[in-house]
Amino acid sequence: MDTDYTYYSDLVEELQIPKDGILSRILLKNEHVNVTVFGFDAGQELTEHTAATPAIVQIVRGEATLTIGTDKKEVGPGAWLYMPARMPHGVSAKTPVIMLLVLVKSQKVA
């Protein structure tokens, strides 16, 4: 049996959103990706910042405002975003939110 994989049956069950706070939990981190699930209570936010690598964001639960560069997107469950490295972005939770973040590490060709 191949056991070289990571499996979660329900991302919503992976963390309890703290009252008036933000919680993150690394689901997978290796030489290819860093996958983190975030829980935001309503009203919590990550102010504008950048990532050194390309990033993928998926909203699993809740409603939020994503700021991507100068654009603002009102998002809910199922929203999906790809951003190149160093793209300014931020997240503001309107309701309790669970968000999946995937940081893609560059691959060196041999």
Strand order of the largest sheet: 1-2-9-4-7
What percent of the residues sit in helical stretches (DSSP H or I)?
Answer: under 10%
Secondary-structure-based class equals: mainly beta
Q: Based on CA inertia axes, which overall geometry fits? A: globular
Spell the H/E element sequence. EEEEEEEEE
Number of strands: 9
Query: Main beta sheet, described?
Result: 5 strands, antiparallel
Distance between the termini: 30 Å
Overall mean pLDDT stands at: 93
Give the uncertain stretches in residue-range form: none
Tally the helices: what do you get? Answer: 0
Strand content: over 45%
The Cα radius of gyration reads 14 Å
Quick description:
The protein has 110 residues and is mainly beta.
What key phrases describe this protein's structure?
five-stranded antiparallel beta sheet, 0% helix, four-stranded antiparallel beta sheet, mainly beta, 110 residues, 9 strands, globular
